[in-house]
Design a protein that fits this description.
Number of helices: 11
Strand content: under 5%
Distance between the termini: 24 Å
Largest sheet: none
Oligomer: single chain
Radius of gyration: 18 Å
Structural class: mainly alpha
Order of helices and strands: HHHHHHHHHHH
């Protein structure tokens, strides 16, 4: 039970980091693009390393122990690409104009460059909805990772939290400039992050009654696929858009290094 509560808490904190992005959008005069570039690259490094080096192989070990080497390996690979396919469908279903990883800086909002149409409020609200849908599987991924492997929970949660900061900017800034209401802008941004603990709750209710080594292996394979897609489709492109190419790569390598050291501590 302690692990379950810890996993929920970690997922909640990661999801509600959209509030940090909202605060930046409402009070900062300019986006610190170099910091965001490094941070997003760092998040990508953490998620790529832990997915490919740790989570994928834990899934494979669990499945091959139950299903044999050949079938277990095939199921692991299928689960991995299934996770990629799942998050890709969700990403594709969201209109590009309202996609939570479309880049928008605070100073661009002030100049009216980020809105896709005359209705800034609509832009902000649809972005909030898109973030909610988009973050749902991320909440499941964070929760399952934290539940099964507490040793890697904190780095993954930090990576997800950093990833959510630009989303908070993309939600709250249009709503604020449309309504002049900072409280409303912050509230919508903050609430959109609740989709992650909701994803965790639904995952818990569905999976916990049937959890065994096979289910665990499949879920971990799916989680690895989701994280790899997020890193390659969202985090790295966003890091390059916010700053210099080399900054995103330096952040990527630093994230991998930190994740590697954190895993070595628990060997």
């Amino acid at each position: 039970m302690d692990n379950v509560l810890l996993a929920f808490l970690i997922t909640l904190l990661a999801g509600l980091s959209t509030g940090i992005g909202s605060t930046i959008a409402l009070f900062a005069k300019k986006t610190n693009t170099k910091f965001l570039s490094l941070s997003l690259g760092f998040s990508a490094g953490v998620m790529l390393y832990v997915s490919m080096i740790d989570i994928f192989y834990k899934a494979k070990d669990a499945l091959t122990a139950q299903l044999g080497i050949k079938l277990g390996s095939c199921v692991t690979v299928g689960a991995f690409f299934g996770g990629i396919f799942l998050i890709a469908i969700i990403d594709k279903a969201i209109p590009s104009a309202d996609n939570p990883h479309e880049i928008c800086k605070v100073e661009d909002l002030e100049k009216g460059k980020c809105a896709t149409g005359p209705n800034l409020l609509r832009t902000g609200l649809f972005t909030a909805l898109a973030v909610g849908i988009h973050n749902f599987p991320e909440g499941l991924a964070t929760f399952i990772s934290a539940l099964q492997e507490p040793s890697i929970a904190i780095p993954i949660a930090v990576a997800i939290a950093i990833h959510n900061i630009p989303e908070g900017i993309a939600i709250s800034a249009p709503i604020y400039y449309a309504t002049g209401d900072k409280r409303k802008a912050f509230l919508f941004s903050f609430l959109s992050g609740f989709s992650e603990p909701v994803g965790a709750l639904i995952g818990y209710l569905i999976l916990m009654p049937i959890i065994n080594d096979i289910v665990f292996g499949i879920v971990f394979g799916v989680v690895a696929g989701i994280m790899v897609f997020i890193s390659l489709d969202e985090l790295l492109p966003a890091a390059r858009e916010y700053g210099e190419h080399h900054l995103s790569i330096y952040g990527l390598i630093a994230g991998m290094g930190v994740m590697a050291l954190s895993l070595l501590l628990f060997v």
